[in-house]
């Protein structure tokens, strides 16, 4: 294949990966010239004892810290304000985010605001942040969001019921410490949802119009690892190899989409999550097969390749036939990992669709999608996943 378009690829985040790598935290804090750490997490991670695994090496190294744990799902801009106040009040000069995407997105935003004027609302959009963040270290405990290396923080305005995205190279953490041992206690349903989120990242980056050779290679590697490890990570949570592979697959998927953006699943997931409080990974999983079905004619070659990655025997199939088989492969994966909900289960009704699709159409993920949608196309995708489809699946 001859590739003839220009592209840019950048990842400013250093990555420390491996079991037990969290023990290196103090040396990295010192390396950044840090004198006091602000740990940002959610209550669940705190109560599960995960934060203690960060506190122990910090205490042993004599590095003081404060803990800010007022993070909720779909983190609010008010959480950024509270964390910022605590950080400033205690002269914290390094931020360590630990948890899923909500905690990491908030930690990144707090780090930005510790070294930038105004309010986080001032920087909603792409590349509007004037100054680098204070050093931020991201420690993921889920294998899905990829927030530990991306330019984005997705925050909620609870009153307006909208999500706000801040995107800047200055919003990338300085370091990601990815320790698979911190993901072992993740419940099966969260393992499934975050894993499907990672898959959606890899796949939407792979088939969209902004794809480029570096991101393509990363997407393929991520999808292969997910196809081989997600089911096992869900049913054998203690399997450290599967956990490690899923954490790495999630990180690699983020390295792909960080430079290419995504597609219609994410465009729709943002307003659906904001209005109906559907967990981000779950709503992506619900939407993904139907979005694939819509997109097949926009990039049949790559969807045929996806089918093969997920174990479909494509021998003697035409490219189009193989591409369409990819949709069923992902429906099967959803079933196997226990994601069987529909949008209706979360209260989505026909009368809500006008607002949902109008908001989705504003997303920067729509222009790069492999097939240009109309508002009615987006409604039809939602309608198709508002009701349960009766399909035959193989039970593992």
UniProtKB/TrEMBL annotation:
Source superkingdom: Bacteria
Residues covered by the Fe-containing alcohol dehydrogenase-like C-terminal domain: 191-385
This protein's UniProt keywords: NAD, Oxidoreductase
Membrane-spanning intervals of the chain: none
Key word Iron present: no
UniProt xrefs under CDD domains: Fe-ADH
InterPro entries: ADH_Fe/GldA (IPR001670), ADH_Fe_C (IPR056798), ADH_Fe_CS (IPR018211), Alcohol_dehydrogenase_Fe (IPR039697)
The keyword Oxidoreductase is annotated on this UniProt entry: yes
UniProt GO MF annotations: alcohol dehydrogenase (NAD+) activity; metal ion binding
Domain Alcohol dehydrogenase iron-type/glycerol dehydrogenase GldA: 12-180
SUPFAM superfamilies in the cross-refs: Dehydroquinate synthase-like
Similarity comment: family membership: Belongs to the iron-containing alcohol dehydrogenase family.
PANTHER family membership: ALCOHOL DEHYDROGENASE, ALCOHOL DEHYDROGENASE 4
Entry protein name: Alcohol dehydrogenase
Organism this protein belongs to: Halalkalibacter wakoensis JCM 9140
